[in-house]
Specification:
mainly beta; globular
Length: 191
């Protein structure tokens, strides 16, 4: 990850193994995990070589027209906003259902805790928690066309070494409407 001359970057390397299992025709699981190495590409970034756990896990349950999913992920990423590099733990739960043939709905909730990889400039370390709840209702209009309405609520707070702060904090709501066009698959070559 590189941020130009103004911010030093870092290198993240991961080795993982994946295990997938279908318990029944409705219940399945997918897990991958392994060590993650993080090194700074610049001595100005206070990131000592660290070894952490990378993990992704998901459980899916399908009941006719309903899908339930629970997922967890952990790992290093590019960071958000002015945070050059971060480590995040995230839990996501989602439910979707098709009803009355042409209607479908989905709700989801995600919680993420993100911490900086380094105390850049001394003691400036951040820990940000984010909660995102959303819902969407859609209706098929024609074979390849559908309309949707969605609502999202997000709440975020940030804690520094000095305590809770209003930086990157607060909540907001988003309401959106739209059309989705999904044409039939185009096949290339012999079938």
């Amino acid at each position: 990850y590189s941020y130009g001359a103004s911010q030093p970057g870092f290198i993240s390397q991961t080795a993982s193994m994946q295990y997938t299992r279908r318990f029944t025709s409705r219940l399945s699981m997918d897990v991958s995990a392994g060590p993650q190495w993080i090194n700074s590409t610049n001595s100005g970034l206070n990131v000592p070589t660290s070894y952490n756990l990378f993990a992704n896990a998901a459980i899916n349950y399908d009941i006719r027209t309903t899908n339930l999913a629970l997922a967890y992920s952990r790992g290093a990423n590019s960071g958000f906003g002015v945070i050059p590099g971060a480590r995040s733990d995230s839990v996501n739960i989602r439910a979707s259902r098709t009803f009355a043939t042409v209607w479908s709905g989905a709700v989801s909730s995600a919680y993420t805790r993100t911490t900086t990889l380094a105390a850049t400039g001394g003691s400036r370390s951040f820990a940000t928690t984010t909660l995102v709840d959303s819902g969407q209702l859609s209706r098929a209009i024609a074979r390849s066309l559908s309309a949707y309405a969605s609502y999202t609520f997000e709440n975020q707070s940030t804690t520094t070494a000095a305590g809770t702060t209003g930086i990157f904090g607060g909540s907001f709501q988003v309401v959106s409407f739209g059309l989705t066009y999904s044409p039939n698959l185009i096949h290339f070559g012999p079938r």
